[in-house]
Amino acid sequence: MNNIPPIDLTRQHKIISQEVEAQVTEILRSGRYIGGAAVTDFEQNFAEYVGAQYGIGCNSGTDSLYMALRALDIGEGDEVITTSFTFIATSEVIVRVGAKPIFVDLEAHGFNFDLQQVAAAITERTKAIIVVHLFGQPVNMSDLMAMAKKHNLYVIEDCAQATGAAWQGKKVGNIGDVGCFSFFPTKNLGGCGDGGTVTTNNDAIASKVKLLREHGLVRETGAKVTYRHDLTGLNSRLDSIQAAILDIKLRYLDSWNEQRRVAAENYHKLLENISDITLPQEVSGGFSVWNQYTIRVQDRDQDRVIIRDLLRSKLQQQGVIAMVYYPLPLHLQPVYQDLGYKLGMLPMTEKAAREVLSLPMFPGITFTEQQQVAYALKDCLVDL
Length: 384
Ligand SMILES: *Cc1c(COP(=O)(O)O)cnc(C)c1O
What we know:
Blueprint: H1 9-30, H2 37-50, E1 54-58, H3 61-71, E2 79-83, H4 89-96, E3 100-104, H5 115-121, E4 126-132, H6 141-150, E5 154-158, E6 166-167, E7 170-171, E8 178-182, E9 196-200, H7 203-212, E10 217-220, E11 224-229, H8 240-250, H9 253-270, E12 277-278, E13 286-287, E14 293-297, H10 307-317, H11 347-355, E15 356-359, H12 367-382
Parallel strand pairs: 2-3, 2-4, 4-5, 5-8
Antiparallel strand pairs: 1-9, 6-7, 6-13, 8-9, 10-11, 12-14, 14-15
The structure holds pyridoxal-5'-phosphate.
Pyridoxal-5'-phosphate binds next to helix 3 and helix 4.
């Protein structure tokens, strides 16, 4: 039997290889590799997809978050509340602008932050909340936006793992003040390299992000380069080739997300009623795009071996490659030692870090493969 990988991008590429190769060849022959219609077309199509007025392409999801914070003038002396259970880019950018990340704990069920904990963490220094729609599952944005409004806080949505997800029919990235997207290859809309986009309905934020992504350079109408710089920015453009590829993939995104939703349904059925494991659930009001299908493997002993790790290596022996996102929460990362967090401070997050296991999940995974995953999982659990 073949190994079942956590993600297989070659299947996706096969479907679109002719279109992609034709587009890339055209750009290569055109001699225009930065900017141009490929970028502006994609930006417009992506903004339309999300439902936002502006889509501003950039180099990565990380840069999209960084520029969002800069555009909102967040910096020294400010606090930004976010989850500890996410990829480090989310908090890295808070530190990079000179602000302080305030990590809050997870909700009891699911992998997004607990809104009561967010409310409790608000101080007079709090400027913004970065909400992460982790694993493709949207946060309850109705409650979050109400809270943010009450306290006059900005909301930045980290949609890196949730392109196409929605809360009560409205797409993520179009609910808060700014939406930040990553096109890293393993995301729901993944390019053939790095890329990202900022979405917003706010004119001032959009103008500032456009300045920031290109060295603070002021462009006159007609895109004429002036060599006048109004801000300290960065070089964070989305490449033309990348934009062209993403524009093709964007047309397939809904069907690929639908395939993920079907695969999640399959796992729900194949894995129901197994003791010691808990399955992920779609929350009511949320439309998940299942960037990951993450189960919990019940932890039995705080100090000894992590049962999840045993299960993971047994699965690997049977050819099923499962992943752990994330084994060490951000509040316990060596880089944040100075912030003063200790083990035990965010118990739900720490528990999740010991229990999570992400099963193979990608558009094009076959039912037979999912059956094989389920079979291996049951088999491995017997003598754990
Ligand atoms: C991937 C990811 C990022 C960073 O995106 P890059 O494009 O890799 O810079 C940020 N936040 C989350 C939650 C992510 O998963």
